[in-house]
């Protein structure tokens, strides 16, 4: 420390006192990052468990192109519903990013509108996931403890991981609507819509997790 001079001394001082690294981070944003980090560990454990179960299963694993096919005009189309769900969720990331941008620009009405559009996308995703589950359960005969199309572990892991993610999306939709309502009611300072950025962190995380679930469950 004694030998450090000029710019190096300033950098060391800032880091050692947490001035620029931690003290400049708003409390709400820091807590959201901590929550997302803990959630990352959970999803990582789930997906790692899925890989382990699949690679060690003695029975054949169901083919995603067969399990998740959807009939269109009398022809089964592999992963049709999943492709639509993925498109909707990725589109919701776009509207959420625009909402954050509107928040930075202090454009209150535009931010509220884009948050609501994002919530509609999220609700549509959850609705399609419910349709997917009902199809697997009532038409394909897949249960968490039984699978008519191959390895019995498939149902247990699939319903657990996609259900946990669906719960996050559902909670996110409620979160979006609550924040939109609170902004509309003037519960936040009109000069600071930082809450929109915090909301965006959560939503983008949910979308990112789906990319991994999509790759592991539907493409592998």
Give the topology, please:
Elements: H1 6-17, H2 27-56, H3 64-67, E1 70-72, E2 75-77, H4 80-104, H5 108-139, H6 153-184, H7 194-219
Antiparallel strand pairs: 1-2
Helix pairs in contact: 2-6, 2-7, 4-5, 4-7, 5-6, 6-7
**Whole-angstrom Rg:** 22 Å
Strand line-up in the sheet with most strands: 1-2
The count of helical stretches stands at 7
Which series of helices and strands comes N to C?
A: HHHEEHHHH
Count the domains: 1
Distance between the termini: 52 Å
Task: Specify the CATH architecture.
Answer: Up-down Bundle
Question: Unreliable segments (pLDDT under 50, ≥5 consecutive)?
Answer: none
Instruction: Compute the number of strand runs.
Output: 2
Principal-axes shape call: globular
Give the helix proportion (percent range). over 70%
Say what the CATH topology is: Four Helix Bundle (Hemerythrin (Met), subunit A)
Describe this structure in words.
- With 220 residues, this protein is mostly helical.
- Helices cover 73% and strands 3% of the residues.
- It has seven helices and two strands, in the order αααββαααα.
- It has helices at 6-17, 27-56, 64-67, 80-104, 108-139, 153-184, 194-219; strands at 70-72, 75-77.
- It is globular, with a radius of gyration of 22 Å.
């Amino acid at each position: 420390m004694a030998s450090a001079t000029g710019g190096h001394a300033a950098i060391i001082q800032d880091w050692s006192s947490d001035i620029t690294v931690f003290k400049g981070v708003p409390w709400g944003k820091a807590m959201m990052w901590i929550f997302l980090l803990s959630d990352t560990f959970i999803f990582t454990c789930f997906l790692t468990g899925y890989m382990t179960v699949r690679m060690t299963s003695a029975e054949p694993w169901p083919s995603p192109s067969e399990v998740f096919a959807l009939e269109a005009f009398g022809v089964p189309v592999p992963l049709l519903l999943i492709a639509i769900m993925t498109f909707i969720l990725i589109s919701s990331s776009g509207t959420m990013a625009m909402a954050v941008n509107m928040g930075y620009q202090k454009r209150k009405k535009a931010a509220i509108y884009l948050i609501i559009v994002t919530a509609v996308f999220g609700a549509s995703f959850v609705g399609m996931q419910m349709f997917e589950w009902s199809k697997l359960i009532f038409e394909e005969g897949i249960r968490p403890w039984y699978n008519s199309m191959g390895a019995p572990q498939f149902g247990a892991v699939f319903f657990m991981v996609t259900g946990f993610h669906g719960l996050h999306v559902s909670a996110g939709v409620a979160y979006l609507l609550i924040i939109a309502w609170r902004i509309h009611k003037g519960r936040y300072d009109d000069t600071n819509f930082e809450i929109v950025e915090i909301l965006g962190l959560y939503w983008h995380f949910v979308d990112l997790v789906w990319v991994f679930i999509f790759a592991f469950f539907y493409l592998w």
